[in-house]
Amino acid sequence: MAITSDLRDDGIRVVTMEHPPVNALTVQGWYDVAAALDEAATDLDTKVVVLRAEGRGFNAGVDIKEMQHTTGFDALIGANKGCFAAFKAVYECAVPVVAAVNGFCLGGGVGLVGNADCVVASDDAFFGVPEVKQGALGAATHMARLVPQHMMRTLYFTARTIKAQDLVQFGSVLEVVPRAELDDAALRVATDIAAHDTRVIRAAKECLNGIDPIDVNKSYRFEQGFTMELNLAGVSDELRDQFAGTDKAKR
């Protein structure tokens, strides 16, 4: 697994997630994403961040298999705290974050993108929060930043996905381009941002966060409380076993 962070000469920092086969991040992976964004926030040479991924899709959320092969609740608590740290780092990054989304963006991926400042996507990109299938709740806070309220509820309750092209009408996705052009599209937006005085842009980021009507950090932590309840009730473990193809009774 690799989370890389490269600062270009023009002040654009490119943070890349690469964790085959589907970019479902381990507990450490979420903390690594958070660390990369925190580094960008404190580095005054960084003017804007492009958050992207290599591989089949942008992000498939939490590594369910890691959770199911760990006894007790350590992996669950680690995933909760790691996701919270990563989402918070994107939202509170001192410079704008441009998300470049390819392929699938599910669960935790929506948490990252929903907290980004600008989203561009490839024509094969789609978004979803299939948490109900695994007995978890979360990222509704962030999906609600991408689609209207009733659409968010429909996607959440049904575990359906929505194409990137359908998000353009809501203004949450700036543009959809062929996959081969995705990085260039993200860099074009980032270049426009980097062209301005970074002192003003950093002030603008703090200002816009300050007038946000929803406290995304508190809202997401509220969701995580229900995930813990479902885990304590045994519901989540049962559904994750089905998803991961494991049977703890046989181990």
TrEMBL record:
SUPFAM superfamilies: ClpP/crotonase. GO terms for molecular function: lyase activity. This is Enoyl-CoA hydratase. Gene3D superfamilies: 2-enoyl-CoA Hydratase, Chain A, domain 1. GO terms for biological process: fatty acid beta-oxidation. Belongs to the enoyl-CoA hydratase/isomerase family. The keyword Lipid metabolism applies. Keywords: Lipid metabolism, Lyase. InterPro entries: ClpP/crotonase-like_dom_sf (IPR029045), Enoyl-CoA_hydra/iso (IPR001753). It comes from the Bacteria.
